[in-house]
Amino acid sequence: MRMPRVRGQARCGLGKGDRVEADELLLLVAGGDQKAFEELYGLVSGPVFGLVRRVVRDPAQSEEVAQEVLLELWRSAAKFDPGRGSAMSWILTLAHRRAVDRVRSARAAGEREQREALRANQPAFDQVTEEVEAGLEREWVRRCLDRLTVLQRQSVTLAYYEGYTYREVAEQLSLPLGTVKTRMRDGLTRMRECLGGVA
Amino acid sequence: MSLFRREDLHSLAAPYALDALEPPERVRFERHLADCDRCGAEVRALSEDAVRLAWSTTAPPPAALRERVMLAVRTTPQDPAPQGAVREPARARAAQLPPHVWGAQPPPRQRQRRRIPLFVPFATATAAAALVVASLFAVQANRTQDRLTAEQDRSREIAHVLAAPDARASTGRDGRGRTIGVIASATEGSAVVTLGGYGAPAGGRVHQLWLMRPGAQPRSLGLFQGDTPLVATGLGTSATSLAVTVEPAGGSPQPTTQPFVQLALKSVGFGE
């Protein structure tokens, strides 16, 4: 049986038990429980680090951002409210936001070269390791991404995995802004149907 | 900037869920969310969809990251819970907002204005490799079983640094013959650091290793435990030097004393 709050997700990512455990642990962490934080670290450091590295790419910077995010979990745990969603969602949303902020300021500083934009849809640099670790989840997400139209897929992945704004995505794909916004929405909705429909 | 019509704003739900808005748009959209009853649930659903894209990226973090985070946790106070957060009626609508909204604030920086003056890095040498490796083996004896996994992780990381094609060694020695040795790889952004001859600081205090970068605060790289080599990762090419200070038990978020030893990283390929 699935928890109502995590319906449709049980197939993707951590097991249901991990997810519920993360909720409980984060609440304990909010009370200053360092032991609970160590356990939470064991559950979430892989997803957090993997996501940050996927977006940021540079290994040293990825570690820095992941460290900031994990420390922020400790510091800001009291802001988590289980009534608003799962702990894993909260944590990964936070990690994504920080990773995107970092990659954008790096781009603004000219650290990332233009050619990276062109490689946007190539696999991350260390895909082999990731596949070993996250084979099943990766497989499902990839399978569902494959079912999107090319423009839906590119709009979603350029934004989420590469950290581009929808304006930048529109520029790269030579599409009107409105089209990109629609493709993003349709892409996400179709991912939901695909992943949620996995029985 | 043109004014946004309501429908225009509404169409930003998906880019918002993907973190694909520029900051001013993000702010405008979040303001809109607060006034839009039907938006909350929709944005939250789209945000949950976006998070699923993260499930496929899981990757094991380096073991040294754990040490650094745990050290930081021991020395970092927690933020208080938001005032009367969930119960107040005025806040009721906020409960429908996606995590972005309440997790959106950047972490408050613990700015210490005080600049920490450092003394001049001293000599580098070539015998450092022998130094590091010797102390490395010296400490391998006499380990209890429960520390074995951690030791194996550490060994693997050390081997990783040593095996890097650009691994280079450097050592510093002070007037009393005490040493700091480092083997580092700039491309890996990692280093193995050892102290020699310093002994344990008195009164339960600890030796803490710091990464020094231009224009940035020192960053803790961990605590030395006896003469065990410390593996530092995530150094970045802008790293200019390593410094060691004496800190209270458990370490400090920022140095509280003058470094007693510092080693420039230029000779091992950083800051170039």
UniProtKB/TrEMBL annotation, chain B:
The keyword Transcription applies. The chain crosses the membrane at residues 118-139. It is a single-pass membrane protein. Residues 9-42 form the Anti-sigma-K factor RskA N-terminal domain. Residues 126-259 form the Anti-sigma K factor RskA C-terminal domain. The keyword Transmembrane applies. Keywords: Cell membrane, Membrane, Transcription, Transcription regulation, Transmembrane, Transmembrane helix. InterPro entries: Anti-sigma-K/W_factor, Anti_sigma_zinc_sf, RskA_C, RskA_N. It is found in: Cell membrane; Membrane. This is Regulator of SigK. It comes from Streptomyces indiaensis.
